[in-house]
Amino acid sequence: MYDKYYIEQIDSLDDDNVKEKFCDFYDKYRTRFQDIEFYFVEIFGGRRWSYICGYNFDISVHPLRIIISKKFGICLHSNKNLTINDRCVQELLNLLRNYFLENS
């Protein structure tokens, strides 16, 4: 259903404690979006997406996968089996970009 890729480069994801920052971001913003759940992944070889942190109760088989850097991505899925609104995706990516700019 989703398997749609957005390529959204966030330049400030290169520091050593990026995984801890992903977890902190998730803790701060997980309740902001009512209809979607998200989790962060590390990308190995461009194909294997390995869970880092975030929502993990019922990880979707077909999430919306967004590449946010060469090594990292974010996966989203609707918790109500709805199509994910592009506006929500953009809001989440803007929050993530701003979070990393403020915490770099």
Secondary-structure topology with pairs:
Layout: E1 5-7, H1 18-29, E2 36-44, E3 48-54, E4 64-67, E5 72-78, H2 86-102
Parallel strand pairs: 1-4
Antiparallel strand pairs: 2-3, 2-5, 4-5
Describe the model.
- The chain is α+β, with helices and mostly antiparallel strands.
- It has one domain (5-102).
- It is 28% helix and 29% strand.
- The protein starts with a strand and ends with a helix.
- The mean pLDDT is 82.
Number-wise, the strands total 5
Mean of all residue-level pLDDT scores: 82
Total domain modules: 1
From the alpha carbons, calculate the radius of gyration and give it in angstroms: 13 Å
Strand content range: 25-35%
Helical content (DSSP H or I, runs of 4+): 25-40%
Largest sheet geometry: 5 strands, mixed
